[in-house]
């Protein structure tokens, strides 16, 4: 099969490799769509722990074409999405439902080969059926949508809360879609430049702020006087985090959904301490993909506007460069297999 492999950080190529065979408990999925994620760029650059050589790709959908155990035979031929979490299913963490804390945890697309390929091997326990009315390209976005669902849950976000989102990449935009659906109020989306904010405006943001061009603090004082109920950082950037802690209302919540690239950062602790902020880590979001596909199938959340660039595996360099430069109107480059 064809696959895009990272041999080591900064070295990537299209390879020909044998079609993998699923071991017991796993299935083989013929990939129909696989989205390029900003996190994949960190894997390519060597900023996230991964096992190289690696086929990246954790946002996928496809059709099951082989199984490793007879008991999974009913999946053959079915259109699916699924969890990327490979766990033991036996330890205390797994049995409590917090399987991301499993001591044997490995994630497809990071420690294990992912979906930038014609086929991917995934665990059968994480599968969910893809209803016919959700196109494969959109179904592949269940993963980032699941991050938004999990983050909102951890933040305790609720109807009528004001929301500010730092970052207008696909995670930030998924947060906007979920916040709007939940009936959150006066949702403000921030990014460095206006061109990245157009789609947020189209998706119904109450306001957007281009932080390199406008005064963030002054604008927010105008939009959310007294501070914001729920703030989500989807950037992992030091100065963005510093602003988040200053902009939350007293007793408000700041949810951290952006990867900090292992960096040490300075924050003003008293912004949190004095104002009794609740700060939640939202780096791991499990058990959300079934809810995500159901919300899409029922028409509650529509991410069709995210599918901006369809590409082939052969065009991976174009896709990666689009994901890096994010030109005007770009949200997601998605590998699509006919
Ligand atoms: Zn992702
Ligand atoms: Zn476990």
Textual characterization of the structure:
This protein is of the alpha/beta class. It has two domains: 2-141 and 303-336, Quinone Oxidoreductase, Chain A, domain 1, CATH 3.90.180.10; 147-281, NAD(P)-binding Rossmann-like Domain (Rossmann fold), CATH 3.40.50.720. The protein is built from eleven helices and 17 strands. The chain has helices spanning 38-44, 92-96, 136-139, 142-155, 170-181, 198-202, 216-223, 238-247, 269-273, 289-297, 316-325; strands at 2-8, 11-16, 26-35, 60-67, 79-82, 85-86, 106-107, 119-123, 127-129, 162-166, 185-191, 207-210, 228-233, 248-256, 278-281, 307-311, 332-336. Strands 3, 4, 5, 8, 9, 16 and 17 form a seven-stranded mixed beta sheet that branches. α4 (142-155) packs across α5. The two termini are 14 Å apart. 47% of the residues are buried. It binds zinc ion (ZN) (2 copies).
């Amino acid at each position: 099969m064809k696959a895009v492999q990272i041999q080591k950080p900064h070295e990537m190529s299209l390879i020909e490799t044998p079609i993998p065979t699923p071991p017991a408990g796993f299935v083989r999925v013929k990939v129909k769509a696989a989205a390029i994620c900003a996190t994949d760029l960190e894997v390519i650059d060597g900023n996230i722990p991964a096992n190289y050589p690696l086929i990246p790709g954790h946002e996928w959908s496809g059709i099951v074409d082989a199984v490793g155990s007879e008991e999974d035979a009913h999946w053959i031929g079915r259109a699916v999405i699924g969890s990327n979490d490979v766990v033991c299913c036996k330890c205390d963490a797994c049995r409590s439902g917090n399987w991301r804390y499993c001591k044997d945890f490995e994630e497809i697309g990071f420690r294990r080969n992912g979906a930038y390929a014609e086929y991917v091997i995934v665990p059968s326990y994480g599968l969910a059926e893809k209803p016919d009315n959700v196109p494969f390209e959109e179904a592949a976005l269940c993963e980032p949508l699941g991050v938004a669902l999990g983050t909102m849950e951890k933040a305790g976000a609720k109807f009528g809360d004001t929301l500010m989102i730092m970052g207008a990449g696909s995670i930030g935009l998924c947060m906007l879609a979920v916040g709007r659906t939940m009936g959150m109020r006066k949702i403000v989306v921030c990014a460095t430049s206006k061109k990245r904010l157009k789609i947020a405006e189209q998706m119904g943001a109450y306001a957007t702020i281009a932080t390199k061009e406008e005064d963030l603090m002054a604008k927010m004082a105008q939009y959310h006087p007294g501070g914001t109920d729920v703030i989500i950082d989807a950037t992992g950037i030091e100065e963005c985090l510093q602003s988040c802690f200053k902009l939350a209302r007293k007793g408000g919540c700041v949810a951290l959904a952006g990867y900090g690239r292992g960096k040490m950062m300075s924050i003003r602790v008293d912004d949190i301490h004095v104002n009794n902020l609740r700060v939640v880590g939202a780096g791991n979001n499990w058990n959300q993909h079934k809810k995500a596909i159901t919300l899409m199938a029922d028409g509650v959340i529509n991410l069709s506007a995210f599918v901006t660039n369809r590409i082939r595996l052969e065009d991976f360099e174009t896709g990666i460069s689009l994901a890096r430069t994010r030109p005007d109107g770009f949200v997601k480059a998605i590998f699509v297999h006919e």
